[in-house]
Specification:
Largest sheet: none
Helix content: over 70%
Distance between the termini: 25 Å
Number of strands: 0
Structural class: mainly alpha
Number of helices: 3
Mean pLDDT: 82
Low-confidence stretches: none
Strand content: under 5%
Length: about 110
Amino acid sequence: MDDDTLTPARVSGEKLGTDLKVVLADVETLLKQAASSTGQQAVELRERAAENLHRASLRLSEARVAAAEKSRAAARRADDWVHEKPWAAVGAAAGIGFLLGMLVSRR
């Protein structure tokens, strides 16, 4: 697969990473402002920072659940394929083993 190929999972992961960087930068800014502020303004800034962190945590949890669901679906597809075509699976495993053996023996 080319590095230029953008699969939905890769785009989603990159977007999540970008979103998290933005949220963390915002939280860092808010905490710096809260450190130099006093009274009600400091409380509000800390509350906004906590809210941003909570939202980021929720996004990470959602991404984790989605990734787990996708990996379970891929595992089910692989299991179904192996059960439907056991000799093809044996051949594929043997081919991969042969290639890995060739690569290891060259070192």
